[in-house]
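Human: Here is a favour to ask of a fellow structure person. Comparing notes only helps if you start from a blank page. Give me a protein, with the fold worked out from its sequence. Please set it down just below, with no commentary around it:

Assistant:
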Amino acid sequence: MRIPQSIRDLIATGPLAHLVTLNPDGSPQVAVVWVGIEGDAFVFGHMVEQQKLRNVRRDPRVALSFLGKAANAMGLHEYVVVHGRATVTEGGAADLLQRLAHVYLGPDVAFPPEPVRTNPGHVMRLAPERFGGIGEWA
């Protein structure tokens, strides 16, 4: 599924996103993540093994949400909800996080920190299946 230009424009502003994965018992696991876009997938970098990575390897169904920048005619704040399936690959996390750090932390930031920069890390890719929320993407 194609990511609408309005969502691409919003992601370029660096909203913090809430990534929801499913724990083994079916309960939700929520993490705040930096998010980028590559092609028609949302991407996230992770330098160390975390529960969200284990969850996606076992069950790829995820949801992602983030706030928009405007309010609609009724005064409700816009937001995006993305439902889809994610995959995890090893490597590439430091390069992705460095690119995202320029959006989230500033143009002159070096990230990740030196002690973990050489770890291969993991990149998660979310292929959207549907969009919801409040805004033109819903």
Remarks:
- The CA atoms of residues 51 and 91 lie 17 Å apart.
- The mean pLDDT is 95.
